[in-house]
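Notes for week 9. Today we move from apo structures to complexes. The key idea is that a small molecule is not decoration. When we ask for a structure prediction with adenosine-5'-diphosphate present, the ligand SMILES becomes part of the input, just like the chain. The input block below holds both the sequence and the ligand string. Read it once before you look at the output, and try to guess where the molecule might sit.
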Amino acid sequence: MTDMIIVTKDLVKQFGKFTAVNGLSLQVPAGSIYGFVGPNGAGKTTTMRMLTTLTRPTHGEAWVAGHSVTADPRAVRRAIGYMPDEFGVYDDMRVWEYLDFFAACYDIPENQRKPLISDLLELVDLTHRRDDMVDKLSRGMKQRLSLARTLAHDPSVLILDEPASGLDPRARVEIRELLVELSKMGKTIFFSTHILADVSEICTHIGIIEAGQMIAQGSMNDMRAQLQPHREITVTVKDSDAAALVRSTLESFPGVIGIKDLEPKGGRSLVRIDYSGDDDGVAAMSGAINGAGIAVLGFNEETKDLEAIFMRVTKGIVT
Ligand SMILES: Nc1ncnc2c1ncn2[C@@H]1O[C@H](COP(=O)(O)OP(=O)(O)O)[C@@H](O)[C@H]1O
Ligand SMILES: [Mg+2]
């Protein structure tokens, strides 16, 4: 089994009588890009504040990189880089001073800080803004600087609260690319978002939280299978004879729920397959059709996007 670098067990946070996080159990595999998804007010920030040792769980427990957030908060802090959802109050510093300050907070010796800052600025593409005041940066640049700051002590786990929120589309894409780059450097990335497009582009795993509870979590593939009772695959062939051959080939294929002909399009025949299997099964199905000597002109799956899945799942919970 994959090592889990963040684990929570029945995590609860109450504010007075209000329960913001309600028995949350999550598992974040080492090396994953994990999207923590949910609408505003779902409990994402509160969960992250418990994981980063800023607030104590009311009940339950959480471990980050093997350390308990309640029993060994210092070890947790050393293992993580945390980017809060607000930039903070250090606007009256130069870009390099900002990083110098946070590197010093992590006890990085002065003679190591200069090359470190150069590397960090290079990584987040802010070298040209090194001597500018932080408050002169665009929001996207501030987010990248904030991300650079979380990397100062070379943590293995990044916990990022809405890193792409409030950014224009271009800046959002830049943040996504940066997250992928950091992942390639071996870091685990746990980030929250209420924007599903961010998730579908880069995540290997997701967890959906609603009203303090985990609705579903797993790898992107598992999630699709879990949330999507069946998949719809359309095979395009040149005529009705070939379509008949597709039907007879797949009739008893494991996982096939139904097969029907669609209206021909542009003189070509279309066969729609309802299928309940996983990606390996889809590949095997494609292999079976080819193996039967059928000339396939198209083999497409209607992927229901995550947005649609998300809407369906959260609706199911509310009603
Ligand atoms: N310090 C607090 N005191 C009281 N209620 C809080 C506090 N922090 C968060 N909440 C409430 O807990 C719920 C979850 O908030 P939050 O974790 O910020 O959600 P998210 O980050 O998913 O938008 C919200 O209803 C919020 O108003
Ligand atoms: Mg939040």
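The domain at 4-226 is CATH 3.40.50.300 (Rossmann fold).
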